C-alpha cells in the first residue's frame, strides 16, 4: 500500500505539473482557472479587463429637452395660453415663445387690442405664405434647429420676414445660396429682391454670369423676362448681365448678340417648345417673316414689340461684332438694331484702325481698369478634356494676332507675326501692348463652380513671336470640361481726342 500510495501521489503531482505546463503554453483555454494559477498564465489579466469594462461609460441618447418642448408644447399644444388662426388653420401656442418674434413681441408689449386676446386672427397679405410655411416658422420658436427644403425655402422666407425672425431669415438665405441652379435661380433672385437678401441676389447674379452663355437653357431664357414665371423685370437682371465684363462669353461677342436674339424671340413667343439647337433657326425665321409679310422696314427695336428690349441690346459690344465680315452681314440682315448705333461704332473702329496704322498706337500702356471693364473684348473657349489646344479668336484685331495655347497645364499667349499663317493683317511693330484678364472655371451639374482661377487685370508687352506663360495650373485643381474666358483690349482708348474735345461715348455707351 505504501508503495502504491507513493506512486499515486507521484502521478498526481505529474498530472498537475502537466496541466500547469499546458496552461502556460496556451492550451486548454480558460479551463486553467480551475487549476493552480502560475505567474505565466495569460488569464491573470482578465479581472483587470473586466474592471476596465465596468468603468467604461456607455453612451445612450436620451430625449433632448428641445425635442420634448417641441413635441409637448408645440405639436401637442399643452398649457397653451394663446391661439393663432391663419389661412383656415389654428395653432395652440405660448406667448413666452411667440415673443421671440419681433412681430408678436411688438403686438404683446404695446397697447394693441391683441395684447389681451386669447385668440388672434392673423392676416396673411403675402401670397407666398402658406400653412406649411407657418407650421415650420411657428415650430422654429420651439426648437434649436430647423430643416429647410430648398423647394420650400421661398415660402418659409416670406413667413419669417413677416414675423421678423432674423435667425430664420438668415438660414433661409444660406439655404438659397447653397442651392442655386437653373431651376431655382430666377425664383430665388426674385424672392431675394422682394425680401431684401442682397447676398442671395449677388449669388444668383454670379451664377447667371457663369452659366447664361456656357449652359444655355430654353426654360431659363423664358423665365428671364417680363413674361417669365417669376415676372423678373428685364432691366433688373438681363441688362446688368449683358453689360458686365464678368459675363462668361462663349465663343465671341457675336454669340452674346445671338443669345439675346433667341431670348427676345422666346419672350415674344412664350409657347415655343423645342430643343435649344432649333431655337436660333426658328428665331431667324420669325424675324424674316415679320420683315416680309408685315413689310416692316424700320429696325425691330424701333417697333412697339421690340422697344422693351432696347435697354438690353444697348450693352452688346458691337465693336467686336463688326470686325468680322460674316457677323456684320448678319447684323444688317436681321435689322434689329437702329442704323445710327452701327454708324457710330463703324466710325469709332475706323479711327482706331487709322491710329494703329498711322499714329503708332501700340496698345494700352496705362492702367485704366474702368475703361477695360466697360469696353474690353469678351471671348471664351471650352476645353472638353485634358490635352493640347491652340486657338485664336476670329475678327480683325488691329494686326495683333494672338495665339492661345493650353498644354501640360500651362496657358500661353503668343504674339504671332511670321510663324503661323493668319487670315488678316499682321502688325510688324517691334512691340505691342495689350490689357487682358483670363479666367478659368469648371462647374458641376447644377452650374455651381467647382474650381476657378483668374489672372486679374494685367498689362502685357510682347515682341514679335514672343511667348508669355499666363497661368500655370495645379493638376489637383483641374476639372474638365474647363471653360476659358478672356477679356482683351488691343488699342489705347480715345487717342484721337483733342484736349478740348468733348468726352466721346465708347461703343458700348454710344448705343445708350
UniProtKB/TrEMBL annotation:
Span of domain BTB: 80-150
Q: Where is the signal peptide?
A: none
- Give compartment(s): Nucleus matrix
Keywords associated with the record: Developmental protein, Differentiation, Nucleus, Spermatogenesis
Q: Respond yes or no to whether keyword Nucleus is given for this record.
A: yes
Alphabetical GO CC annotations of the entry are: nuclear matrix
Task: Work out whether the entry's keyword set contains Flavoprotein.
Answer: no
Instruction: Tell me one GO biological process term.
Output: germ cell development
Q: Which InterPro entries did the record assign?
A: BTB/POZ_dom, Gcl-like, SKP1/BTB/POZ_sf
Q: Which domain of life is it from?
A: Eukaryota
Which is an annotated Pfam family here?
BTB
Q: Please state the protein's primary subcellular location.
A: nucleus
List the protein's name: BTB domain-containing protein
Organism from which the protein derives: Oncorhynchus tshawytscha (Chinook salmon)
Its gene name is gmcl1
